[in-house]
Structure prediction request, 443 residues.
Amino acid sequence: MPVYDDPRAGEAAAVRLARGEAVQGVLDGDDPRAWLALDAGVRRAAWWCAGAQRAEWERVAPLPDDPAGLDAPRYALALCHRDGRVREAAVRGVAAHPSLLPLLVVRAADWGAPVRQAARQVLRELVDGDAVGEGGPGTVVGLAPVILLVGRRERGAFGVALLDEVLRDPSRAWPPALLSHGYPAVRRHVHRLAVGTGRLSPAELARTAADDADTVVQSLCADAALAAVPEGRPCEEVVGPLLAARSPRARSAGVTALRRTGEPERAVAFLADRSAMVRACARYVVRQAGGDPVAWYRERCARAGDPLLPPGAVIGLAECGERADADTLWALLAHPSAAVRARAVAGLRVLDTADVRRLHLLLDDPAPGVVRETVLAVEPSVHLLSDEWLGERLDAGRPRHVRVGALRLAFRRGGSARARALRVAREDPDPVVRARAAREAAR
Prediction:
């Protein structure tokens, strides 16, 4: 299928339709941009050709003034025709071609008042006589993606208002798949209406916030679910799904709700969450209940030999601790868990206590994550590393992640280290290392 951001895509589609190719084979009907691209492409004249007055497709197969009886490919061209009289006539007979109803939505925002009014009348009749609960391409709900895209235009509000009217009507059942629609704009719009009209229960909103991949839907549903949580009373059907969600936004909402439900002790388990947002919310809830998150972090991180030490506890200590806590983090640089070592390095950077003379040995760490964090920590003081030492880490025998980290530092270091890194960009046998070297050189 064509890329519809390219203005030539609509022109090419119009030519193919003029030749009689099926609409389904020419356009991706599920992509609302396809219909807008076709609409623009049909009227795009080849002005660069001497004496050209018509679009290219019209030279292939011009249309009669009356579109009645045309097949679907050529009827689509009539709906987009440069002549408003042809467009208006096509609008009035579009019911015979239900696959072309997205173009009816486009015409409902037409710049020509007669065309626009005719299209809106047909859309209104469609709503009044449509069993929306059945869904399908012939319904206003099925047209939601193109309605919302056209709704951004100056005259596009009619279609959006009509869609909202249908969705707000309690007598009309929503198609089951509407809330999980594949087009993000539709899913967001529908969930806003669901929240505003009370279509979803607090438990359903919580499950949506936990399961939906769209951050806008997550935030919208989480906020609405939390607003329904009773004060001072557990509400597991809402809080439970949020706390178990993969999304940090949903988890943080669930943690924040624990203060409202009178269960702040459950927030302690999230002090070491992998997400900084969730950790911050957990600290807030614990503090509001009289707890001391810093003491909790210090007690956990003091056990440097604990193989089960959660990495989130390490970075959490740096987020709310003091510079004196750096001694605890230094001790964790030898921890068997690579994640703990990486968070310890990140924590030293957060506390502004990173010492390149002590950290540079971790640039040889077997874990890529540790090396990445160490590069960030020592980069401000890279001038303290010798050109020779950095150059050794660019050797082809070193692990790839070590060499990539050394490349970044070598370019920051300058001098002979940068010259060596430039040779790596040209000559290294590893294409990944060459690509990273070229990227660093361009920064």
